[in-house]
From TrEMBL, chain A:
GO terms for molecular function: ATP binding. The keyword Nucleotide-binding applies. Residues 8-242 form the ABC transporter domain. This is Amino acid ABC transporter ATP-binding protein. Keywords: Amino-acid transport, ATP-binding, Cell membrane, Membrane, Nucleotide-binding, Transport. It is found in: Cell membrane. The keyword Transcription does not apply. The lineage of its organism: Bacteria, Pseudomonadati, Pseudomonadota, Alphaproteobacteria, Hyphomicrobiales. Transmembrane segments: none annotated.
From TrEMBL, chain B:
Signal peptide: none annotated. The keyword Repeat does not apply. InterPro entries: AA_ABC_transptr_permease_3TM, ArtM/GltK/GlnP/TcyL/YhdX-like, MetI-like, MetI-like_sf. SUPFAM superfamilies: MetI-like (SSF161098). This is Amino acid ABC transporter permease.
Length: 245, 227
């Protein structure tokens, strides 16, 4: 399947929860090193669209290809897909009974069969990347929300994903903690990480997005470069970003 | 009111009581270990998407939880006998107690597994962990940690309930008491002594579970948070 070198491509994706149509024919492509930001109101289908990329939701129709994996194929090797895709959630989901280091080395050791020594070395590197090197032996409950989220990002990075998905990763944080998490994501973008993120941080989206997808009632209502946030063409996006047309 | 307690008459038989207490502790340990394993497997079975497996586990749990322990002991005892199988009273007692406590621990551990948030499992899936790896790392230990106090109470209860196996003449503590009191005619003193020994056994078990908890839940140990 030709995907024009896109790391992520979605074509005519449909998805319903019972009678509710959540995704009504979605198309997009994300090139290597690109940052795509999905915005929209609650219930517009943006989180569902993101979760479909890692097959946390299955789609009814259409085709999704991520890093060469045919995500919509029922016979997909899920674990191979998820080794290439990192996902970070709103609620961090660090494993509470493990230290930060143990959280980070778990997947490399058990999935990639890395040696403990190598995995621990790498844990230090990814923690340095998110500015948490001194929290190696802390338990999640000893960290602030922002620190937990950064540790969760580090845990994903340790699997050396080719693309990172961020599902409203700052929505549970106050503005100050949000800032420290967004800084980490900015640094990742600067390093050339391919990313798809759902966020409500419009200012951040403007600064980081190569591509913005505005979702409305299960459709991509408007899309384009980050400039559509400052000069929207549809009344719905204009209203969403609080601008007069 | 003319109460005369004569303890020396029964205390001089202390080796009997010691043997009985040791046997009670052995019964409790065997049933705790095997019942714990059954509990983990049973909880996984009840949560399984395989409807037949899940149903079998449910029938086991409900069957045990809704019948008296003494009846279960007789069922094992006479059931094995009618199949022509001969086992010692101790083996039968251990088997019946294991079957009994296995059902209760299945239910307790299932509650623990169910209490692991969905997001934890999604995070593990997102990291490409296999189902077995997720069960072991993300569900089993945190799940058991959540219900550890209930679980240990159940095991202590089991040790106390093992007194019922005196009915099939397992030589545990209560059976020893029955024998001593019929030999000395000092029933009240005998059972006072036995009650005290049961309290000591309970305390020993609780201390053991507390220590075990520190070993298997390192976070509790390092953060000093009580279980």
């Amino acid at each position: 399947m030709d995907t024009n070198g896109a790391v992520v491509s979605a074509r005519d994706v449909h998805k319903s929860f019972g009678p509710l149509k959540v995704l009504d024919g979605i198309d997009f492509e994300v090139q290597r090193g690109e940052v795509m930001v999905i915005i929209g109101r609650s219930g517009s289908g943006k989180s569902t669209a993101l979760r479909c990329l890692d097959r946390f939701e299955t789609i009814d129709e259409g085709e999704i290809i991520v890093c060469g994996h045919h995500v919509s194929d029922p016979n997909i090797d899920l674990r191979a897909l998820r080794q290439d895709v990192g996902i970070v959630f709103q609620s961090y989901n660090l494993f509470p009974h493990l230290t930060v280091e143990e959280n980070i080395i778990l997947a490399p050791c058990s999935v990639k069969r890395a040696s403990k020594t190598a995995a621990k070395e790498q844990a230090k590197r990814v923690l340095a990347q998110v500015g948490l090197e001194e929290k190696l032996h802390y338990y999640p409950e000893q960290l602030s929300g922002g620190q937990q989220q950064r540790a969760a990002i580090a845990r994903s990075l340790a699997m050396q994903p080719k693309v990172m998905l961020f599902d409203e990763v700052t929505s549970a944080l106050d503005p100050e903690l949000t800032g420290e998490v967004l800084k980490v994501i900015e640094a990742l973008a600067a390093d050339g990480m391919t990313m798809v993120m759902v966020t409500h941080e419009m200012g951040f989206a403007k600064g980081i997005a190569d591509q913005v997808l505005f979702m409305h009632r299960g459709k991509v209502h408007e899309s384009g470069p980050a400039t559509i946030l400052t000069s929207p063409t549809t009344p719905e996006l204009a209203q969403f970003v609080g601008k007069e047309l | 009111m003319n109460l005369i307690l004569d303890f020396p008459a029964i205390l001089e038989r202390w080796p009997l009581f010691l043997d009985g207490a040791w046997l009670t502790l052995q019964l409790a340990l065997i049933a705790t270990l095997l019942g714990g394993v059954i509990g983990v497997v049973g909880a996984m079975g009840r949560r399984s998407s395989n409807a037949v497996l899940s149903r079998i586990c449910t029938i086991y749990v409900e069957g045990i939880r809704n019948t008296p322990l003494l009846v279960q002991i007789f069922l094992v005892y006479f059931g094995l006998a009618s199949l022509g199988l001969k086992f010692s009273a101790f083996t039968v007692a251990a088997a019946a107690l294991t079957i009994n406590v296995g059902a209760y621990t299945t239910e307790i551990i299932r509650a623990g597994f169910d209490a692991v948030p969905r997001g934890q499992i999604e995070a593990a899936e997102g990291l490409a962990l296999s189902r077995a790896q997720i069960y072991w790392n993300v569900i089993l230990w945190p799940g058991i940690e959540k219900v550890y106090p209930a679980l240990t109470s159940q095991f202590v209860l089991l040790m106390l309930a093992s007194s019922v196996t005196s009915q099939i003449s397992a030589e545990e503590l209560t059976a020893v008491a029955n024998y001593v009191q019929s030999d000395t005619y000092r029933a009240f003193e005998t059972y006072i002594l036995v009650a005290i020994v049961y309290v000591i056994l309970s305390l020993i078990m609780r201390a053991g579970f507390w220590a075990l908890g520190l070993v298997i839940f390192p976070r509790r140990r390092r953060l000093g948070t009580p279980l």
